[in-house]
Design brief:
The complex is a heterodimer of chains A (94) and B (537). Chain A is an all-alpha fold and 94 residues long. Chain A has one domain. In chain A, helix 1 runs antiparallel to helix 2. The longest helix of chain A is centred in the last third of the chain and has 27 residues. The termini of chain A are far apart. Chain B has a single domain, classed as Cytochrome c oxidase-like, subunit I domain (Cytochrome C Oxidase, Chain A), CATH 1.20.210.10. Chain B is 65% helix and 1% strand. Chain B has 15 helices and two strands. The chains are: A mainly alpha (94), B mainly alpha (537). At the A-B interface, helix 3 of A face helix 8 and helix 10 of B.
């Protein structure tokens, strides 16, 4: 416990992230207007992933946490990615 | 300034009342052991309802045509039976009862990491159960979709489905919070010196289970919300007439519900991994292999959900992938069985009642597991899909697996939990009737399924009659055995002989504390030395 340091993130960083999240939200809505066929899901997922990374890294302080916890969260993301990949083995080849 | 109340160490958790009296000393208690018993009694209540519904189904099937209920009632009965048994008994089962009671003690902690969250989990459980039961008692008829709530029927049926869906949704919160609590407890509260590779196997199984609870349960939560929105607003996610895809529902449902099978079975395997070495008086064979197989089952178990959907119109690529992955998950399960049997090899076995339940578990689990390969193979699955064969398979796995392990675990830890010993002769009589009844009830269903008898029908062709009579008779024998077991245990809580601290000569930490344990388990937190281990006989 003593090894853990406290980090105070400046408000302006939070503000920039908020702006980025709002921008990505509009972009994920905007991508549905472009006809990308089966790739529109991929596009939406990329924006969602970017937003999640920002939230996890800064709002949830993963950036300042132990590497082990970062590894565990990363592993969960990989599992989630694998679940989506396998699901799309049905949709793309049906 | 905050004052700290000193809790006396010589008072057992059963006698210590704290600041509340009577029933309030239970429902407001944050002691992990009291919460465990709250779960135990709540589950027993729901289990009684589930068993009665199961008996009613078997009575209906004792003869072709209408026997005691019409088709709509039969549909409702198997739906409520499934929802109760899956969401309220086998999923929370061992983690909520024995996990709550034993986990902190087995790792040398005074409680779980978040005791209040633990109590909140039980409140969610009760609220979820009340909602499900309300769907039976009120509204336009009992839900009739089956426990899977398959789309598109789940948003077309006129029955009272929404309370059942919200009930299952709330029960999911209970599961998630319990999983979170266990993960943090295991990471942060193990006794000094108890490294990961010195932790007993039951906590290890709870650890693997907790990750599944945490990661998979939200998927079913969102899916059930989508069904509710589909019913109320017609949003068109699953409805093909609005551009939705009903197969997507099946994907989402099974992304949770197949890993949920491992939420049921992993703690069951963990309990068996405690019982076998204790009654073999021998170090468990392949400790690290059992841990690796636990984590492998938890991991690979995420990716096999599609084997429930081979006949749903999935792509061939997805079918092959799911079939291969399904066969893969059989390997770690087999590793565990090999290790249990190897532990018993050349051991001085003490065939007490928990051991009998444990070896019967291995027997029925093997039958369930091997019949699962028939369903995991694409060609044979098409033949037996939606037949009585599937019902037999999952009852051997789910009821055979969880049920036998649960009864083994309760007979194993009963002296510790209640400080009393049960009548061993009646316990063996109950086990014998239960086992014979179980095999008589479910084995004929394999045969009926191979002959082509479909599941979920209140009626059948005359050629299926004889095997159905046998199966129905089995349900009565099994229930008789169950009654003996439950009455014997209830009776022993009050009048059983006083139990010793370590009646089975176990080596894990729960056998070092008094029976029943004091409120905070340990006067001093134990310290594990370099040579200490959970199975050092």
């Amino acid at each position: 416990m003593e090894k853990e340091k406290h980090h105070i993130v400046p408000y302006k960083i939070y503000f920039y992230i908020l702006i980025a999240l709002i921008t990505f939200t509009f972009m994920s809505i905007g991508i549905t207007k472009v006809n990308l066929h089966e790739y529109s899901v991929l596009g939406a997922m990329i924006f969602a992933t970017l937003k999640s990374i920002l939230v996890l890294t800064w709002f949830m302080h993963l950036k300042f946490d132990q590497p082990f916890l970062r590894f565990m969260v990363g592993f969960v993301f990989l599992v989630f990615l694998a679940v989506i990949f396998i699901t799309f083995l049905d949709y793309y080849y049906r | 300034m905050q004052t700290v109340t000193q809790i006396p160490h010589d008072v057992s958790y059963l006698d210590y009342k704290g600041k509340y009296k009577g029933i309030f000393s239970w429902i407001f208690s944050t002691d992990h052991k009291r919460i465990s018993l709250l779960y135990l009694y709540s589950m027993l209540t729901m289990f009684t309802v589930g068993v009665l519904l199961g008996l009613a189904m078997k009575l209906e099937l004792i003869a072709p045509g209408k026997t005691i209920m019409d088709p709509q009632t039969y549909n409702a009965v198997f739906t409520v039976h499934g929802v109760i048994m899956i969401f309220m008994i086998v999923i929370p089962g061992l983690p909520a009862v024995f996990g709550n009671f034993m986990l902190p003690i087995m790792i040398g902690a005074k409680d779980v990491a978040f005791p209040k969250v633990n109590l909140l989990s039980w409140y969610f459980y009760v609220l979820g159960a009340i909602l499900v039961i309300s769907s039976v008692l009120f509204g336009n008829g009992t839900p009739d979709t089956g426990w899977t709530f398959y789309a598109p029927y789940s948003f077309k049926t006129g029955t009272n489905l929404l309370p059942a869906i919200f009930g299952a949704f709330i029960l999911g919160f209970s599961s998630i919070l319990t999983g979170l609590n266990f993960i943090v407890t295991i990471h942060r509260m193990r006794a000094p010196g108890m490294t990961w590779m010195k932790m007993p196997l039951f906590p290890w199984s709870l650890y693997g289970t907790a990750w599944i609870q945490l990661l998979a349960t939200p998927v079913i939560g969102i899916t059930l919300v989508l069904v509710a929105l589909e019913r109320i607003f017609g949003i068109g996610v699953f409805d093909p007439t609005l551009g939705g895809d009903p197969v997507l529902y099946q994907h989402l449902f099974w992304i949770y519900s197949h890993p949920a099978v491992y939420v049921m079975i992993l703690p069951a395997m963990g309990a068996i991994s405690e019982i076998i070495p204790t009654f073999s008086q021998k170090h468990i064979f392949g400790y690290r292999a059992i841990i690796a197989s636990t984590l492998a089952i938890a991991f690979v178990g995420y990716f096999v959900w599609g084997h429930h959907m081979f006949t749903s119109g999935m792509s061939g690529t997805a079918q092959y992938t799911f079939s291969i992955l399904t066969f893969l998950v059989a390997i770690p399960s087999a590793i565990k069985v090999f290790n249990w049997i190897s532990t018993m090899h050349k051991a001085s076995i003490n065939p007490e009642i928990p051991f009998l339940w444990a070896v019967t578990f291995i027997f029925v689990f093997m039958i369930g597991g091997l019949s699962g390969l028939v369903l995991g193979a694409l060609a044979t699955d098409v033949y037996v899909h939606d037949t009585a064969f599937v019902v037999a398979h999952f009852h051997f796995i789910v009821f055979g697996g969880v049920g036998f392990s649960f009864f083994g675990a309760i007979h194993y830890w009963f002296p510790k939990m209640f400080g009393r010993m049960y009548d061993k002769v009646w316990a063996k009589v109950g086990w014998a009737f239960f086992t014979i009844g179980f095999l008589t009830l479910y084995s004929p269903m394999f045969y009926l399924g191979m002959l082509g008898m479909p599941r979920r029908y209140y009626d059948y062709l005359p050629e299926f009659h004889a095997a159905n009579i046998l199966s129905s008779l089995g349900s009565w024998v099994m229930t008789f055995g169950l009654l003996i077991v439950v009455i014997n245990l209830f009776r022993s809580v009050k009048i059983g002989a006083i139990a010793e601290i370590n009646p089975w000569n176990g080596k894990t930490l729960e056998w070092t504390v008094p029976s029943p344990p004091p409120v905070e388990n340990f006067e001093e937190i134990p310290v594990y030395g370099e040579k200490d281990g959970p199975y050092e006989y």
